[in-house]
Amino acid sequence: MRHVLFDADGVLQDIPGGWYAAMEPYLGERTREFMHRTWKDELPMLAGQGDYMPLLAATLAEYGVETPVDVVYQDVWHRIDRIDESFAIVEQLRRHGYGVHLGTNQEKYRGGHMRTTLGYDAIFDVSCYSCDLGAAKPNPAFFTEAARRIAADPSTILFIDDNPDNVESARSVGFPAELWDFTQGHDTLITLLANHGIEVTPAYQR
After folding, report:
1. What top-level branch of life does the organism fall under (predicted)?
2. How many whole angstroms separate alpha carbon 182 and alpha carbon 9?
3. Stretch 51-55: mean pLDDT, rounded?
4. Which residue, 30, 54, 76, sits at the end of a domain?
5. Average pLDDT of the chain to the nearest whole number
6. Are residues 9 and 29 in the same domain?
7. What is the pTM of this model?
8. pLDDT band for position 203 (50/70/90)?
9. What percent of the chain has pLDDT over 70?
10. In what order do the strands lie in the sheet with 177-179?
11. H-type helices in the chain, by residue range?
12. Looking at residues 173-191, what average pLDDT do you find?
């Protein structure tokens, strides 16, 4: 195992309070209805097809939200907390000589925020954003293209994700893959890595 490919949301980063809580000030009791509608609308954009912002603006207007779309987007979609313990493991893997990569479903605006404002381009060796790859997880094409960009055989790339469908898809094209999210604790992640021969020291032992 020479590489680790990490998912973002739920693994490396968190939306404080969750998506619904972030959107509730704008939509109240219609929040869940709206979010499920806009997530469905967003699906083609995750694969790089179309522009999400005008579509989101139209849906907000339909739901009677008068706040400009860029303000809502920044308040909700940019509400991201990096999980320090996860990034400490990323850094330790890099020091140990592993390739460390990002594999995430994002449309171009949120992906751009992660690349620049959150500084992910400087942290990961290869960044695989679905909107750039032209396929979104769990489409196996996402993983095939990720392996091509990493320039490694899938069998040498361990994939970590919090969605079981994504994990199974990765395995179907030859990736070793593990299901994990940050609520399980980072000791569990360290154990999963060790099961694949990747040794990481827990923070409290450093």
Report:
1. Bacteria
2. 10
3. 97
4. 76
5. 96
6. no
7. 0.95
8. low
9. 98
10. 126-129, 99-104, 3-6, 157-161, 177-179
11. 18-27, 31-46, 52-62, 69-76, 84-95, 108-116, 130-133, 140-150, 164-172, 186-195
12. 97
103 lies in the same domain as 169:
yes
Cα-based angle 19, 24, 26 (whole degrees, multiple of 5):
120
Token couple for 189: 């992640």
Task: Assess if residue 204 is contained within a domain.
Answer: no
The predicted pLDDT at position 205 comes to: 53
The residue count for the chain: 206
Note whether 142 and 47 are same-domain residues: no
DSSP character for 136? -
CA 58 to chain centre: 26
Residue 77: per-residue pLDDT: 98
Residue 67: partners with Cβ closer than 8 Å, 6 or more residues away? 26, 60
CA distances from 122 to 37, 79, 115, 119, 125 (A): 34, 20, 8, 6, 8
Q: Given 27, 43, 76, which residue is the final one in a domain?
A: 76
Q: What is the mean pLDDT of residues 31-49?
A: 97
DSSP state of 203: G
Q: Does residue 166 register a pLDDT over 50?
A: yes
